[in-house]
Amino acid sequence: MTSGLRFDHAVLPNGLTVIGEHNPRAVTTAVGYMVRAGARDETPDVSGVSHFLEHMCFKGNERYSADDINRVFDELGADYNAYTSEERTVYYGAVTADKGGRLLELLTELLEPSLRQDDFEMEKKVILEEIAMYQDRPAQRLFESANQRYWNGHPLGNSVLGSVESITALTRDAMQVYFDRRYAPSNVLLVLAGNYDWDAMLAQAERRTASWRDYQVVRERPAARPARGYEELVDPKLTRQHVALYAPGVPVESPQRFVPVVLANAIGDSSGSRLYWELVDKGLSDNAWLAHESGEGEGAFVGYLSVAPAKAEEVLERYQQVLARAQDEGLTPEEWRRAQRKIATGLTFRAETPLGRLMSFGTAYQTLGVYESVADVVAAVLSTPLEAGLELLRRRPFDDAYVLALGPG
Amino acid sequence: MTSGLRFDHAVLPNGLTVIGEHNPRAVTTAVGYMVRAGARDETPDVSGVSHFLEHMCFKGNERYSADDINRVFDELGADYNAYTSEERTVYYGAVTADKGGRLLELLTELLEPSLRQDDFEMEKKVILEEIAMYQDRPAQRLFESANQRYWNGHPLGNSVLGSVESITALTRDAMQVYFDRRYAPSNVLLVLAGNYDWDAMLAQAERRTASWRDYQVVRERPAARPARGYEELVDPKLTRQHVALYAPGVPVESPQRFVPVVLANAIGDSSGSRLYWELVDKGLSDNAWLAHESGEGEGAFVGYLSVAPAKAEEVLERYQQVLARAQDEGLTPEEWRRAQRKIATGLTFRAETPLGRLMSFGTAYQTLGVYESVADVVAAVLSTPLEAGLELLRRRPFDDAYVLALGPG
């Protein structure tokens, strides 16, 4: 699958890093701008600004109206979108290989938004609608609260969407200030994947972003003091009990970063894991899983359980017993091997398309500063030793779990 | 993208049809069994049996336990799953090309389930949990009701999941009867996509399914008498108003089948459509769309609107005005062209992986009996004339709409 792949890399005079994974077999080209600006970079008074700004970048500038942007993406036959997370904001698309240059052109326009006042007011309503929509989605409400409470003041607990209050109070000028302090070329990564002409794309990127001036961007990385214990939120309107569990994990920069990923998969993958066989396969819960999420400087195990309220106490106890037993007794080599294979499979299939590749090696490069081929990552996962997992379990991370339940009470 | 593709086709002595789209550039192989048995084939007393049976097929037989099946899929590094719809039940997976034969072997085991009594009782709990989970998902509850009410006794209104009552009452023997009447080889399609050895796979399929005996399966296709008008369901626990809209559409066998698809996209695609600009872009609704779904013998436009209860009446009126205006004034050539391109783009990107291709040409072949390459389908979409869309609008399908609202009242 990796035959004939080539890694391309350059830093433009304005500080913008451009990377690419060229695949001569690909029939499409994916292009993405990854901005190292996300919810964790927000102060409370502008909570939600990264995500709101992502929306505003589709509103255009003096050259492109919002309708133009939408129309040109469609004319290019582009599969395109954007997302905002705690760590970053990503604008991306994929087209047939002959249109890569035009896609780069359009995505570059997105990163030069006018942030017009009237667009801002209109889009504010859209964001508020999006926030309102989550009120009917208990699992998302739960994780919004649990994430904030677990991180306990650390910026990784910041809400991506923001609140009704913060969005209502946000001004266009405050967004402009945020943009001017975060979208520096050296804080942005331009990523190409699939079939493209490196020299032509690089020359175009350099010419097109020549006016972008660079400046220094600092990301705060305070120490985390995560919460622990059990809390419960009651909403009589709900019919199910939803439970989130957080426990201390491993930061993304750790040389051990795949250890908690394999561990969480063995314990709590959505199929064929210990939690699956113990809770879901037995019909005790419709959904019970454990995963591991890592950010810059911090990581956490994140788990979820959905259950009938009458059985909630018993099933949550079983869930926690599964974690405790793993700490007490470890995992078998077979379980470890199986989890490794499942993760490798997911990586391999995600790598089938240029857009899938762009997301994988782009985010890894932005965080770690190194290029990782699919083969590299698969090899790293498959060679992660069980002993490292057992060592992590011996530190008993789940004894420090924070659990938040949301149900009808 | 279609260079070097080859269509393979054979009918085995037992009546099983095997088709494939061979792609020498692919590094993976996708294999799927498509059974023409879905919710529409169920009588009310066994409502939900198709989907429950899909789960039971993963429970194994005298050769493979449930754990074996799960384990072997993982050992193969397979990306695999199954789904049940009104029209069919599909078991599928994808692996690197060297493992295609072993994947076929395992999927064939799935179609020879023992349906053990104890597995059946255990899995019944899993299904009931799945049904319970939907109680906290208002949009899914709404569509479950709206679909049933719109189809008004026609089997396309049958619930895929079934109800708590029907699943509780279902017996293992009734499921066996359903299996014995629906899983005839001539009612099943074996589909291959990507890189595979046709002769070897075909020989394996023939040898492995030699004991399957064929019989005739009849699918009922009664005339539909769809409902129209407006109904409202009240649930004081909700915070948003959710609205579903149905209107008469076009069956999948129609030579005009792409006309309503392009039409619905132009009016109500989730981005860049009339509904998008009129409702979502203006912050009046977090979600407003219109699509077209077609089954054997019948089709329908299906729409959705989510809105704050206080604005529900006004925004639903606007939604319906968008539909009425399209009927009154038609669409522009630009809108039509743009919708065509967006659909072609979606088809093209879905075709990037063997598994995506398997789903597309497999379901089309099962329904229409003809092979369609991506290029064929893209060409058919791009050559669908605006005049056909205008003709459909002149028949004023939305005047016969059925609208169901679910909200706090």
Describe the structure.
- 2 copies of one chain form a homodimer.
- With 409 residues, chain A is an alpha+beta fold.
- Chain A folds into 2 domains: 6-208, Cytochrome Bc1 Complex, Chain A, domain 1; 229-407, 2-Layer Sandwich (Cytochrome Bc1 Complex, Chain A, domain 1).
- Chain A has 15 helices and 11 strands.
- A 6-stranded mixed sheet of chain A has the order 1-2-6-3-5-4, with helices on both faces. The first copy, chain A, has a 5-stranded mixed sheet with strand order 7-11-8-10-9, sandwiched between helices.
- In chain A, a hairpin with a 4-residue loop joins strand 9 (287-294) and strand 10 (299-307).
- In chain A, helix 3 (100-110) packs parallel to helix 8 (198-208).
- Chain A is globular.
- The mean pLDDT of chain A is 96.
- Chains A and B meet through helix 2, helix 4 and helix 12 of A and helix 2, helix 4 and helix 12 of B.
* Helix-residue proportion of chain A: 40-55%
Which assembly state applies to the chains in this document? Answer: homodimer
Q: Please summarize the sheet with the most strands of chain A.
A: 6 strands, mixed
Q: Assign the CATH superfamily of the largest domain in chain A.
A: Metalloenzyme, LuxS/M16 peptidase-like
Taken in chain order, the helices and strands of chain A follow as EEEHHEEHHHHHEHEEHHEEHHHHHE
Strand order of the largest sheet of chain A: 1-2-6-3-5-4
Count structural domains of chain A: 2
The residue-averaged pLDDT of chain A reads 96
CATH topology of the largest domain in chain A: Cytochrome Bc1 Complex, Chain A, domain 1
How many beta-strand runs of chain A?
11
In DSSP terms, counting alpha (H) and pi (I) runs of 4 or more, how many helices of chain A? Answer: 15
Q: Tell the overall outline of chain A.
A: globular
The assigned structural class of chain A equals alpha+beta
Unreliable sequence segments of chain A: none
Tell me the name of the CATH class of the largest domain in chain A.
Alpha Beta
Give the radius of gyration of chain A: 22 Å
* Share of residues in strands of chain A: 15-25%
> Which chains have the largest interface?
A-B, 59 and 59 residues
Q: At CATH's second level, what is the architecture of the largest domain in chain A?
A: 2-Layer Sandwich
